[in-house]
Amino acid sequence: MKLVVVSAGLSVPSSTRLLADRLAGAVTGRTSAEVQVVELRDLAVEIAHNFTNGFPGRKLAAALDAVTAADGLIVVTPVFSASYSGLFKSFFDVIDPDALAGKPVLIAATGGSARHSLVLEHALRPLFSYLRAVVVPTGVYAASEDWGAEGLPERVERAAGELAALMTGLSTARPATTAKDEFDVVPFAEQLAALRPAG
Hints:
Blueprint: E1 2-7, H1 15-28, E2 34-39, H2 44-53, H3 58-69, E3 72-80, E4 83-84, H4 86-94, E5 104-111, H5 119-130, E6 134-135, E7 140-143, H6 152-167, H7 188-195
Parallel strand pairs: 1-2, 1-3, 3-5, 5-6, 5-7
Antiparallel strand pairs: 3-4
Helix pairs in contact: 1-6, 2-4
């Protein structure tokens, strides 16, 4: 199995890459997946050229192939202007629109304030739903104050477990029960008749 991590962090070191590495470590702790990291910072020029000439450069083509062939994706972006970064969006704009259909994806983001945590739901989840990926229920947002605080490790572990289950084909849903219902169902008409006054 192959897990590909797409990190849109711009600085070195980057909190975005740090979060990506923590998520990847939590997934590989549950699977035997081989991890490949795609640093979008290193592909910025080739992504721009792809928009103007229609052809990916060598590094960008390799990154696109890796994402397309992955059994699961972790995507992490910093928050810029209340949404994902332009570099992050541009990378997914040059991917074939059908390449992510049915692919398990864990979405994550970093930002300076907890006020931007809804970026997961109003920007990232709709983007990958549009691309017909299977987005795990738990997204992970890390504000500056979250590092070393309670809550972040638990969210990382929960999201990683969900992605690992999708990658290995395990269902996290409750098994169907074959037991009879404990309650008798009374038809609505009978319930109404019981309310009518006698006479």
